[in-house]
Amino acid sequence: MTWTDEELVDRSKTGDKESFNQLVRRWERPIFALAYRTLGREEDTRDVTQETFLRAFRALPGFKGDAKFSSWLYRIALNLCRDWIRKERRTPVSQVPEGVELEQLVEQHGPKHDVATAEDLAERAELSRGVAKAMERLPAEQRTAILLKEYHGLTFQEIADMMNCPLSTAKTRVYQGLTLLRKHLAEQGQFEPPVGGGAGKRPSRES
Amino acid sequence: MMHIADDQDALLDYLYEEGDPSERLRIARHLQDCAACSVAVLELQSVRGMLADWTPPPVKLGFRIVQDAPWWKPAGRFPLWAQAAAAVFLFAAGMAVSQVDVRYGEGALTVRTRSAAEPLSSASMVPVTTRQDNIALAPETSSNPDFGALEQQLRNDLNGRSDADDILRRVRAMIDQSEAKQQRQLAMRLADVVRDFDTQRRADLMQVQQNFGQLEGQTGQELAHNRELFNYLVRTSGTK
Fold this sequence. Notes:
The structure holds two protein chains of two kinds. By secondary structure, chain A is an all-alpha fold. Chain A has helices at about 5-15, 15-40, 40-60, 70-90, 100-110, 120-135, 140-150, 155-160, 165-185. In chain A, helix 7 packs across helix 9. In chain B, a hairpin with a 2-residue loop joins strand 1 (about 100-105) and strand 2. Chain B has six helices and two strands, in the order H-H-H-H-E-E-H-H. In chain B, helix 2 packs across helix 3. By secondary structure, chain B is mostly helical. Chain B has a two-stranded antiparallel ribbon.
């Protein structure tokens, strides 16, 4: 039987460690991915991921279920990432996955890439590096908003709640982030305007 | 219709399929007719497509909680004060049960336990000496030096006297004397045992009292802390 997050949280509150471990198994990869794209270092990301679940476990009695459990976890992870960046006084390092073989990339991307050539894989790895670099150049709020939207599927309202900002601000951060990202990628020579032209050309009103 | 490229909210709702479905349908129709807006949407969709290529490393995680949370207490667990009360009760019950009554009589040492409700209820009996009529049968095996001396005295007396009644009387007197001496020795030993036991009991009682004092001190600190916290909440809530 598959328990919902809410059911597992309720069971965990009664001291059932195994229920909480089910939540860990369910959410450790998304949390790791979020922290990795924020920090960019695998070892630091592991520490932050582990600490996220430890803090969640300790703070579980205070979780009233007002937000989704996953949103609560994301918030803890993002706070930890922010603290880590402040503490270490480092800038986040966006990297292409460390130690990732091209074949592993193929496996991750599923059947549609099964026929990818070595040139395709090399190109994709280069593109991944470029995206990481362009993301790194974004302001932190825009980067976080895009991460939550693109990779974790949060609604704009959930992003607004998590970032303690109005809904319109959350949307603006995503929009401006995407626009800036397009600009950075173009500067890096990695963004080809869609066929049909007019890249970067803003349509005027009533045109 | 205005260009959706100028309407950030509408553009994002369309891109991420949020908001009113009828509004998204309206935008889709507009995109069919407006090349400029189509390009703007395609550009953002292209950026989103490129983001998909940025993947974290394929690592093995498997985090697992192995210890109980500090906040968790089993439902049946008693609070600290109840545990302390139970400990005191058990200690008192143990003291009542362990009031040992030791008596010496009829050639045997009798150990009885005496509870407050039923004095002299028998708990166990431990014979530690032989009966009188065994003394003459197995003197060699007796470890008591008094019996050896008695035997020697009897032999001497029997060699020198012929009056059986007198001998018997003297033997009885010596046996009574020896028995009285043994009783005194046992009484002294038992007195030592009782004294040691009483000393240990007093030490235990003092330890219990000290522990209670510590518990009361901790409880007082917690109360003081809670009082401060409550006062702070009252103050802060009053200022808003």
